[in-house]
């Protein structure tokens, strides 16, 4: 398979002139001494250590928690580029929400044969308890994180959808704060769209979907599994920024289908729960009976219309990578439009022809588990050994429906500061989309994740990736 040329977001393709959007960053890098850049890099790490923003890595014997590395060179997106992305994101989240409402309602998309019934009805993430239930405001996908990759000046693709409990927004906000402290002179050269109002936008979104009669001054809480969770910092950060309570399951109880929070002044009714716990654990009476993280009776209160869950229970099916492969058809079914942001071409290994192609081309493909996340359970063919490819072929033959395959895209690169100076590293982008009763808001920018190892395509923080501040600029 021919190697694709790599598009660098500052330099373009090999032989191109530097792109105008990066002209000021290019000049700043050329004017700034390497030693000063390394000093700023160390200062950034110091900021994050003092803030306490860490990420737990399960199964890592070296440490329970670590900092997510932060790169001090911003990623630049022009206003024109962003407007295109924004339109595509709004279209996609609108369709995802309509899909969830339909599969838990009339199932018209299944009756039309657009997507196989068994892929939905037999999916482990399909929650039977949500059938026939309409959440407040008809909103399922209150908070979405849509992962986007770029391969050329005008070539953007959606890599995956995250509408269950998307994470990472705290890093987007802290990255901006640290960049402003470290590089005020660079900010002065650009008009950068703000992201710091995200907590207010999130709070407004959650208030808008409070149960009937409770929208005026609803009580909102962030439900966390606790401080052992990998994203606990984010849970506490967002609760603090929104001015709402951070609670664990034991802090809540249900009486007469109403959720209450224990306080020093006595029980207080809770109207909206931004839950950062997966479906299986949120209510031991409805899901896993051995869960000690959730709230017994929570789903009964939800079905009674007395509390809103964000995101809605049952949204995890939209994260499934086999379902993802049908998103162009899903968008067309619900909006009547072609997808503004295309998917990465995807082979569904549950289909015999796709399985045969995948097995014949494992060395050139990326293979993922349909319910996988965090960069785990995947094969990156071009970077795998023969033994790894053979082992993965065995997994595919044993349970092909568990996997999808995609071509190895030439992900764009951005200038990144390493121990040896500035180099090009592969990046992706996770914009955040908020959907409430009053409409959809896309935060300008999002979280850029960067593969810090030269040539690596794995940007996930759990796999050693880092993050960048993302600037949407005029021009």
Automatic annotation (TrEMBL):
UniProt-listed SUPFAM superfamilies: Glutathione synthetase ATP-binding domain-like
Limits of the Circularly permuted ATP-grasp type domain: 74-451
Superkingdom of origin: Bacteria
Gene3D superfamilies: 3.30.1490.270, 3.40.50.11290
Database matches in InterPro entries: ATP-dep_Glu-Cys_Ligase-2 (IPR051680), CP_ATPgrasp_2 (IPR025841), UCP005522 (IPR016450)
Protein name (Swiss-Prot/TrEMBL): Circularly permuted ATP-grasp superfamily protein
Originating species: Sphingomonas jejuensis
Organism placement in taxonomy: Bacteria, Pseudomonadati, Pseudomonadota, Alphaproteobacteria, Sphingomonadales
């Amino acid at each position: 398979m021919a190697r694709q040329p790599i598009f660098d977001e500052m330099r373009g393709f090999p032989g191109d002139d530097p792109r105008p959007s990066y002209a000021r960053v290019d000049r700043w890098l050329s004017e700034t001494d390497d030693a000063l850049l390394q000093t700023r890099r160390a200062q950034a790490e110091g900021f994050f250590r003092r803030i306490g923003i860490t990420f737990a890595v399960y199964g890592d014997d070296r440490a329970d928690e670590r900092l997510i590395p932060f790169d001090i060179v911003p990623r630049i997106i022009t206003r024109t580029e962003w407007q295109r992305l924004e339109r595509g994101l709004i279209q996609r989240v609108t369709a995802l929400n309509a899909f969830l409402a339909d599969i838990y309602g009339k199932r018209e998309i299944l009756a039309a044969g657009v997507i196989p019934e068994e892929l939905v009805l037999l999916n482990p993430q399909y929650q039977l308890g949500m059938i026939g239930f309409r959440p407040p405001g008809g909103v399922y996908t209150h908070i979405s994180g849509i992962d986007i990759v770029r391969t050329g000046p005008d070539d953007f693709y959606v890599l995956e959808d995250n509408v269950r409990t998307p994470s990472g927004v705290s890093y987007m906000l802290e990255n901006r704060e640290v960049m402003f402290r470290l590089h005020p002179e660079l900010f002065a050269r650009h008009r950068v769209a703000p992201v710091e109002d995200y907590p207010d936008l999130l709070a407004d979104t959650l208030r808008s979907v409070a149960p009937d009669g409770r929208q005026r001054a609803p009580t909102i809480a962030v439900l966390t599994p606790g401080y052992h969770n990998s994203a606990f910092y984010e849970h506490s950060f967002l609760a603090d920024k929104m001015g709402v309570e951070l609670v664990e399951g034991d802090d809540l109880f249900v009486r007469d289908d109403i959720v209450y929070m224990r306080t020093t002044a006595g029980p207080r009714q809770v109207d909206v729960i931004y839950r950062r716990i997966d479906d299986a654990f949120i209510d031991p009476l409805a899901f896993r009976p051995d869960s000690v993280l959730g709230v017994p009776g929570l789903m009964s209160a939800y079905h009674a219309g007395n509390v809103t869950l964000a995101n809605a229970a049952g949204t995890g099916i939209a994260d499934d990578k086999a379902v993802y492969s049908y998103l162009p058809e899903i968008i067309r079914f619900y909006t009547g439009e072609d997808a503004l942001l295309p998917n990465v071409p995807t082979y569904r290994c549950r289909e015999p022809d796709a399985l045969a192609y995948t097995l014949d081309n494992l060395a050139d493909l990326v293979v993922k588990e349909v319910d996988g996340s965090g960069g785990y359970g995947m094969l990156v063919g071009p970077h795998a050994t023969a033994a790894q490819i053979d082992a993965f072929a065995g997994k595919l033959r044993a349970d092909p429906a568990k996997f999808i395959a995609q071509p190895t895209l030439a992900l764009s690169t951005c200038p990144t500061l390493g121990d040896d100076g500035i180099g090009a590293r592969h990046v992706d982008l996770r914009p955040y989309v908020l959907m409430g009763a009053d409409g959809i808001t896309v935060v300008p920018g999002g979280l850029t994740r960067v593969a810090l190892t030269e040539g690596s395509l794995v940007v996930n923080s759990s796999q050693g990736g880092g993050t960048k501040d993302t600037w949407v600029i005029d021009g």
